[in-house]
Amino acid sequence: MRMLLLHARYQLLETARIPIAMVGNLVFPALIMLFFVVPQSQVGGDPVAATAAAGQLSLFAVINVCLYTFGAGIAEDRAQPWDAYVRTLPVGAGPRFGGRLLTGLFFCLLGLIPVIVVAALFTSAQASPAQILAGVAVVLGCGVPFLLMGLAVGYHFSVKASLVVVQLLVFPMAFVGGLFMPPEIFPSWLDTASHAVPTRAGRDLVVNALTGGPVDGTALLVLLGWTAVLAVLAVVAFRRDEGRRFR
């Protein structure tokens, strides 16, 4: 545990030394809320629509952190001599990996704060403390498959390639999953197709948690299915990288 916390502290300090590296991930979802949700009275002025928008963009904030921290971040670390040296230490990969998870969790929680503040101050979003806590827990749970996706990208691609892959994943998935606009306005074919992507499944679970709706069993199954597939891809990418560099 001591080594795990030490690795987490090191990674936090390493990121904090370059503030601009985390500003985009933390501020961008809140800016979308401020510029595209607040001015629309039919959304920002409607309690249900505003609450749903806050949930959607909270999930987008977590996805951003997961893919950029665990995708591009891991690829960048792998390119450094320091990472190869740390892997040779007798402590093993557990504390290093656990420290990265704690760092990602910290930035996920940090990324939710601006969205929640904007929603509370400038929209009619309404949720009880219990619903907010449930929403935060569901958002973090829905972030697991995207964390695994980030691991698969980070351990498989180089630094330059990982940045491109992450960008190609984040925005199309967010759009198709209804994180930028409610899926209720999608054409029927897009609404049907979006139920197969993890962003839509996560969006539906988060919105239901915030608005007090029932748990969507289909969305939960889709999310679990993606989690299983991405877990396999992440393990394969990690073992491939370990074997390629140390056999």
Task: Walk me through the topology.
Elements lengths: L1 H15 L3 H18 L3 H4 L2 H32 L2 H7 L5 H30 L6 H14 L1 H13 L2 H18 L11 H7 L3 H14 L5 H30 L1
Main location: membrane
Membrane topology: Multi-pass membrane protein
Organism: Actinoalloteichus caeruleus DSM 43889
Walkthrough of the structure:
82% of the residues lie in helices and 0% in strands. The chain has one domain. It is an all-alpha fold. It starts with a helix and ends with a helix. It is found in: Membrane. InterPro entries: ABC2_TM, ABC_2_transport, Nod_factor_ABC_transporter. It is a multi-pass membrane protein. This is ABC-2 type transport system permease protein.
